[in-house]
Design brief:
The chain has 416 residues and is mainly β. Helix content is 1%, strand content 49%. The relative contact order is 0.16.
């Protein structure tokens, strides 16, 4: 994680806000935080507006279904630790909604459900925030809690992607232009960035994605192994998410990888792309997303290894949170016991999905930018999630303590 050098600053937020720089709060659960100096935005409860529409003169106890609202200004785009300070707790769980005034009618959950700790602040890490003013709500989803303060601490600043590969789309043959064959001794950090945190990743997922931890991402015998581990490193689950963001982005061409997915109920393995324009949850789905492969464990037969491959494209016009996403599936023999090859061919007018060389998906909606945001660069992402809205839709296999997503290579081609 990049060491971040900060300058003195003052931010002006809605009503009265307490802002300042304080010493680093470290914990055994978050060894990846490496800042030597911090930027902290602290919001005092006396500046909140509560769900009754009244301003608060002092912290008050909230119950299930109620919320507090405030404005906060972020000076730096990046990933933040989000901390909730409470003076009373009775089985409370809370979550934070960003951009509650958005014109799309969306609900941007940027923390997932946070269980209030018996002592000290409760927090999640990795929540994405863009610069500018944010209208935020703190919701109580269970029990009762008296919230006295909310703090946002910058963990890692967003890095622009310096290199773009724009592939030719005319010709009869395919020419390799970029790849990772995973033939080295470790993850190649000239090609991959580690996403870090446990903020739920927009889907209430359970895992904490770690950085540079071989237990979760390593290269062995010519393969990349992404391993999710239960009750590990102080977390319910740990795993890894690798992205080319901040290194290289891609526009058009064929993107292909060879992989073997895990099988037990609760996992959610994916190889996909996300628009390089993504900076926080409001960016999606305007930035576009291409799911080359998604596999969920509850669709895999534990004995035969047979399962289902999913290919999907998400755009502002068609995406899963409005239930009109355009997807295709393919039954795969022994998807969990053997390697299979997954790919997309992406041109200026369509995206086709393949498994083992056979086409099974087409997206060709190009009427406008809401249907087709894919004239802009995308980043490749490889990750293994646990639980969440899809992976955990049929529960978790409680006997499983480890899941592995194994990849032989990732390759990008252009027409020649």
């Amino acid at each position: 994680m990049k060491m971040i050098k900060m300058r003195n600053f003052f931010l002006v937020c809605f009503l009265t806000m307490v802002i300042g720089c304080t010493p680093q709060k470290q914990s055994d659960d978050s060894p990846e935080v490496e800042n030597t100096q911090e930027k902290v935005i602290a919001v005092d409860a006396t500046t909140f507006t509560q769900s009754t529409g009244e301003d608060l003169e002092s912290p008050t106890t909230l119950t299930d279904g109620t919320w507090l609202a405030f404005d906060v200004a972020f000076e730096v785009v990046g990933r933040y630790r989000t901390e909730i300070f409470t003076s009373f707790n009775n089985g409370g769980k809370v979550w934070i909604e960003d951009y509650y005034d958005n014109s799309d009618g969306r609900t941007y959950d940027v923390t997932g459900k946070i269980t209030i700790a018996d002592s000290g602040p409760s927090f999640v890490e990795g929540s994405p925030f863009n610069t500018g003013n944010h209208k935020i709500k703190v919701h109580v989803s269970e029990g009762e809690a008296t919230i006295s303060k909310v703090e946002f601490t910058l963990m890692v600043e967003h890095q622009l992607t310096p290199k773009l590969f724009e592939q030719k789309t005319s010709g009869t043959d395919w020419k390799l232009v970029w790849s990772d064959e995973f033939d080295g001794q470790s993850v190649d950090t000239t090609k991959w960035t580690y996403d870090v945190g446990n903020w739920g990743w927009g889907n209430n997922e359970l895992q904490y994605y770690t950085k540079g931890r071989v237990e979760n991402a390593r290269v062995e015998d010519g393969n990349l192994i992404i391993e999710a581990r239960k009750n590990d490193n102080g977390q319910e689950w740990t795993s890894a998410r690798l992205t080319t963001r901040g290194k290289e982005s891609f526009k058009f061409g064929k993107i292909e990888f060879r992989a073997q997915v895990p099988r037990e109920k609760g996992n959610w393995a994916a190889g996909w792309t996300l628009g390089d324009a993504y900076v926080d949850e409001k960016s999606w789905p305007y930035c576009g997303e291409i799911d080359i492969l998604e596999s969920v464990g509850y669709e895999v037969d534990n004995e035969t290894g047979n399962g289902i491959a999913h290919a999907t494209v998400h755009t502002p016009a068609y995406y899963f949170k409005i239930n009109n996403q355009i997807s295709s599936t393919r039954d795969i023999v022994n998807i969990a016991g053997e390697f299979h090859t997954y790919g997309v061919e992406w041109t200026p007018t369509e995206i086709k999905g393949y498994v083992d060389g056979e086409e099974y998906y087409v997206y060709d909606k190009i009427a406008n930018e809401l249907e087709w945001p894919f004239n802009n660069p995308q980043n490749i992402i490889l990750n293994l999630a646990m639980g969440g809205g899809w992976g955990g839709a049929q529960g978790m296999d409680q006997d499983v303590t480890s899941q592995k997503f194994v990849l032989d290579y990732v390759r990008v081609f252009e027409r020649n």
